[in-house]
Amino acid sequence: MKIRAVIVEDSRLARQELKELLKNQDGVELVGEAENVDLGYELIQKENPDLLFLDINMPEKDGFELLEMLDEVPITVFTTAFDEYAIKSFEYNALDYLLKPVNEKRFGMALNKVRAKMEVHANEGNDKGQRLKANSQIFIKDGESCWLVKIGDISHFEIVGNYTRVFFEDKRPLLYKSLNQVEEKLPIESFFRVNRQQIVNTNFIESVIPWFNGKLKLKMENGEEVEVSRRQSYIFKDRMSL
Predict the structure, then answer these.
(1) Is residue 144 part of a domain?
(2) Start and end of every HTH LytTR-type domain (predicted)?
């Protein structure tokens, strides 16, 4: 299994260190490197890599801001000289965290984690395309809290002004994207636009309740209730063979 990797790191010496470590790893191809967030964003959009080695503390924009710019986030291994970021990085659900200078044995352990996750993606059919897959992950930053969330773990989305609220586990953060932008990226086999304000993951529907004037109400597994518009109720019934 070939792993296509990119490095986003402002230090030339740190980039060189990572490249030397990668030479001893079978099955990993370095497809590009960038010295700042904006160049890193362009590189990721062009190469669509499997793996991102990402420095956290960079001038102008930090590594977390790069993740916020991406629609789909590659498997991410953070690299930094500041261990104060360690706990925070795992709040982002990063696969791993490497402290500079990077130890070769520790680097090898991180790559083994990457390979294991890649195998899971392959088994789940993670073909990369315009739309996200259930196991694709997106980055959400709301205030000081941040998450990398699998699309399949999100129960529904809801408009809140110019933002979209994302529902997963017991979390309700806001994503700075419109609901229409979100809808364009979601897998159509599992997400359904129930009304102008909301999109639901059909895998999280606990029950369907007949409602007024031919409409439906959906009870989600987390206890939330979502009303389906009359027009979308007909479409939903046809899609779900009700």
Answers:
(1) no
(2) 138-242
